[in-house]
Amino acid sequence: MEIEDAHVPSSLYLSVDGDVITGSVISVDWSATCEQLLGKVSYKFRGSRIKMGWLGDNFQSIEASTSDVEKEKFVRASILRLIEGLLMPNKSRNLVHLRWLLLLVDLKESEQLSWGLEVLAILYREICLAMIPDKAKIDNCMLLLQS
Question: Residue 74 pLDDT > 90, yes or no?
Answer without folding.
Answer: yes
